[in-house]
Structure formats: structure tokens, C-alpha cells
Amino acid sequence: MAEQTTKRKRPTIKDIARESGYSKTAVSFAFNDPSRISKKACSQILETAERLGYIPDPMARNFSLRRHLSIGFLLPQEIRYSLQNPYAQQVLLGIGSVCEKYGYTLTLIPPLNESVTEAVRNAAVDGLITMGMQVGMDIVSVMKTRLLPYVTIDGTPNEEMPSVNINDEMASYELMKTVLDFGHRNLCIISLGGDIFAEKATKMSLPQRRMEGFKKALSEVGVDLQDVPVLVSEPSLADGKLKGKEILNFNELPTCVVSMNDIVAIGCIVSWNEAGLSVPKDISIAGFDNIDEASCIMPHLTTVEQPAQEKGRLAAEALFKMIHKETLQSVHIQIPHTLIQRDSVKDLTSGQP
Amino acid sequence: MAEQTTKRKRPTIKDIARESGYSKTAVSFAFNDPSRISKKACSQILETAERLGYIPDPMARNFSLRRHLSIGFLLPQEIRYSLQNPYAQQVLLGIGSVCEKYGYTLTLIPPLNESVTEAVRNAAVDGLITMGMQVGMDIVSVMKTRLLPYVTIDGTPNEEMPSVNINDEMASYELMKTVLDFGHRNLCIISLGGDIFAEKATKMSLPQRRMEGFKKALSEVGVDLQDVPVLVSEPSLADGKLKGKEILNFNELPTCVVSMNDIVAIGCIVSWNEAGLSVPKDISIAGFDNIDEASCIMPHLTTVEQPAQEKGRLAAEALFKMIHKETLQSVHIQIPHTLIQRDSVKDLTSGQP
DNA sequence: CTGAAAGCGCTTACAG
DNA sequence: CTGAAAGCGCTTACAG
Questions:
Q1: Which PROSITE patterns match (chains A, B) (predicted)?
Q2: Residues B178, B266 within the same domain
Q3: Whole-model pTM over 0.85
Q4: Measured between alpha carbons, how far is A325 from B296 in angstroms, rounded to an integer?
Q5: Helix (H) and strand (E) counts for chain B?
Q6: pLDDT at position B289, please?
């Protein structure tokens, strides 16, 4: 008891050993494998531990066992953006539910001191989930030299890049085709940007793949992608509003805007409403992701549904398999998407919205 | 090089020392305090490290330095509920932005194996933020014996319970008063429930404090809280819908439902719309939190705005102060709320919505 | 059933 | 400027 009050330091296994009269080995067993010591020893040790306020140090324990019991989610951008985006939130939720299932914690890793590389070097995790990753990026080599298992969502699949994706090219093709079928020809595209990896992205990055889908649909009706204005927006409501305003200043207002992101599309709608425009009467818009808000906003958004939670879950399950060495080969998962036609794209061919 | 290919194990500081011809001390300094060794030694060591693919083990480093560089957010309920609730998401965002600022990671801690106590015992973090905590709960004593700094949001402030809150009693009073001023007397209250701590909650828990506010407003117009039906809902859209349906089966439909949670209120609206009712024409509803969706749904929700992000930020800032020993006294922060009157409560006194 | 001892991979006084 | 050595608090073969 005296110890408790005098020193403001946690007791260690050594203290419990001394105080209970058993060895450190015995104390360790009392907590981890009671069957290896006598009932009497166990109860005496536990009692002493209780009395001295001893709780085994998780850090020392994990260090000794060479594990963290946590997986990391590398945020693709500043935390306020990442977590503000409902799509990313759903991915997070999916990852989290798997962590819960395995009794792991989920470590959110913000770009440290503006350096993702440093963040990954220092991450105290058993595996890492990233978004939009491609081979060739610095952090990939860090993960590899750390022998840290990783899976990427919405990245560029590759031999060395385990990944979970939808068929983005196909999905975008379908989305654009719907818009074109409704007679729209005067378009504007809002692409994805703003994440930490954008700079290093190559031709086969996610925005590029979606662009390919758009291009294909456009070419089928004789429109050249080159002639369509393209804006790049961060996946946030605020930046969506900004882009919406920017579009209002175009010399010629597009009849339909196609955004790669629902949250940005919603931002556009909000800003257009503020400017007195009515959607889809005055201008149409289509989104991507089918976040909950897409069916909440008026008009309900025409978009591509992709199961964000499922993406997170599958990525996490794959990662756990790698951590537990159940799989040695690289995983490449592709899951289905669905085109959701709602009310935000006006049918120019019939005259009705 | 040969080492690299033959052993599938990460090199340690010892390998770099041997390989570079310097001591482990020197290697450590090369990474942590290059000024303590010669330029030549440093560059040789770093080069060797690069060649062997050496990255200092974060776990060993943290263990040696007795720190985790991470703070924990103990999820108040199963992860899919916690992270599905936009209010909690905003709190998380606030906490996360502060972590980012300090170069810490944010560890989401789900109730482990259904035991929060175990989760807290094992959490590899330097401090903990919880929601709805009160003294007397098991995990409080765990945090104390671990000497783990903690702050609670929406908990019950106390000498030993650093906390961040709004004035919930006052806010609820104002909300209820608004409803009553509009002439509503046939009411239904939906309280908060479903979190992991609900069982142990005492009279001064958050739902109880809000109830006190309701009671006060009700008593001012001669209504006894006892006569108002009270439902308890988990903070999820799904459970909100369920409660909405349940209310439709009441013998007498209330004229207004007062929910302690926007997401539940929105769930009610959705289920009522599905049942062919129109809000607020057929039934009114008021919420709490002012989540983004509250101004998105039709009709816009009358609610209490509480700055969720700010709560998270303040709690995290307070926690970092405790971690860095800048403050030894218990913090008790109360931040302002705002009543937001919108369109979901019908004015029975004028006849107009 | 029990315990002495090595080991996990770092950091850091301390002595030279 | 440099390095041998102790220490962080556990786990776990190993020997008795």
C-alpha cells in the first residue's frame, strides 16, 4: 500500500513478483496462461496485482510478442477532408467493423508533418490500408522494406499492389452513356483531386480510369473528350460549392455536369440553388458513389452506387489474411457497381425532367 | 546484399552497426541526433541502412521512449453504430484534426470481445477520449491505475472526470419550450440509449440531464413529464425508422415528437413519409445536434446546434495538455449551443406550419 | 509446478 | 567524436 501512495509510477511485473514472493515467470503466466501454475500461486499473484494496481504494460507485451494488434488506415489527405467525405467514412466503417471482429484497433494515420513517408515509417501497426495507391510511390517501398502487409482501395492494381476496386472504367462509361442518352452534349466533367498521392499518379490512376470510361461513351456519340471542360475538385462539400460557382461563370453553361464524386455534385447543387438556378430544370448533374446524402438532397442524385463499406470490409479481411500469413499471393478484388438513375439529370429528348 | 535475399527478416540496429563498422549508439544517433557523430560516420551509417533496407522499428523505439504517439478514442458502441452517427463522426473529425496537428495517430478502440474494460487495459495509447463516461464505471478505474490521461465528451463532469459538454439541460429546456410555445401538448420523447455505458449510467447521465430540461419546460405549462411517453433509441437511422413506426401505432398520435438525436429524428421522418404522412402537416418533430443532414432533409429540422467538431477538438487539446503535463488540474469545459428553428415543427397557434 | 536467464530492438547516461 | 553497457517491461524456451 505504501508503494502506491509514495511513487507515482506504475508497478511492473518485477514488483508483483517481489511482493507476491513468486517469480516474474509465474506472474506472467498468471495473466497469460494460468494453467501453467498452481491455483494458489495464481490467486496470490492476482491478488497482489490487484492490491498494487498492476496492469500489464500493453506496449511491453506487444513489443515482446512482436505485434501491435492494430491495423492502420492511411488517410488520403488532411484529416478534415478525409473524414468529411461520406464515401471515405463508409470505407472507414467497413474497415472498422472487421477490426472489431478480430479484436484489433484501427489506427488513423494522418500525413505526419506533411510527410506521408514519415508517417508510414513510424506507424505502429501490423498492416496498412491505403487509398489510391500505385506502385512507384515512395510509401510503397517503405511498406515493403518494413515488410508491412498492405492493401489499397481505389488504387491501381498490380502484381505488387493488392487492391479492392469496382470496374471504374465501366461504371463511368455507363454513367456518361446515361447522360448522353438523355440528349446532353454540352458537358462539364469534375474530376477527383486533392489527395496526397495525386502528384505521383500515373495514367492508370482512378481518375484516369474513369476518364477513359467517359471518353469511350463520348466517342460513341462523336464527342471528343478534349472538347469537354474538366475541373478538378477535392472531395469536399466546400470545394464542390466552389466548382459549382466556377461553372456558373462559364461563357456557355453546360446542360449537364458529370462529377466523379457525389459530395462535390451536392456542393454544386447547393451553390446553384443559392444562385437561383433549379436542378435539373436549368442545369443537370450526375455524381458518383451513391452516398446517403445523394438520396436525401433535392433533386435526388443520379449516380453510380459503389459499396463503400464493402470495399473497406474486403480490404481489411484481405489484410488480416496477409497478417496471419494465410495468403501469400497478392489479392485483387473487384466488386460490382450499380447505376442509379434518379432525378438530377433532365431528359432533353422528351422535354420532361 | 546477400542478407537481404536470404533472410526474410528485417535488419536491426545491430546489423547496421556490424555492417557499417560503427556502434549501435552511433547508428541510433545517425537517425535521431546526427549532430552527435561525425558527418562521415553519419553518411556511412545511413548509406548502410539504405542498402540493407533498414528502418528503425517504431515499436522498439516507442517502447524505449515510453510513449505511443497515439491517442485513443473509445467508441461508445459497436463500430458500425458509432461511425454511422454523423454527430460522432464530427466529434471524431475534431479529435483527428488535433492529432494531426501534434503528429499523433488516432486509435479507434472498439469494445474488445464485447468487453470495454479489456479494450482499455490493452489500448496502446498515451491518452483516451471517451463519450458518456461517469465516475464509478469500471473503465475509469482502469484508466486511473494505468495512469492514463483521459477526457470525456458528453459524460458527467466531476472532480475526477475531465469533460467537455454543452449545457444540455438548458438546451433541452429551450428546445422543449419552442415546441410548447407552438402549442404542442400531445408529445412523445425519444431518449438516447444503446451505448455500452448505458447500463451503468446514473441520474446525472446526459440523457437524464436533457430529460431534466424537458421536465422543466413541461412543468411551466403544467404538463407532467410522467404523462409523456418516452422511447429509447440507438443513435442510428435504422433504429430511428423503427421508433417512427412504433409511434404510428400509438393509440393517439402525438402532435410532436422530440428526439434527443437528429439522426433518429430523420429516421422518423423517413418512416413517416413512407407511411404517407407529411411532416410537419400531419406530425411535427424536433431533433438535437444539428448534423448536416438536418438542413438537407425535407422539411429542414428544428434542432439544437452543438458544435460537435469543436467538442472533439477541445477534448483532444485538453488531453494533449495532460499528456504533456501542462495541466495537472481537471478540466471542465462547457461550450455554447444554439437553438435552430426550422420547418419541422408546426405552429399550432397560427395554423401555418 | 517453478524460476533464472536470454531476448525483443531500441535509447541514453556514462566513460573514454 | 565514439562505444560498451544498462535499461525499458514483458515472454518463453529451458532446466530443475
A1: HTH_LACI_2 (PS50932)
A2: yes
A3: yes
A4: 46
A5: 14, 12
A6: 97
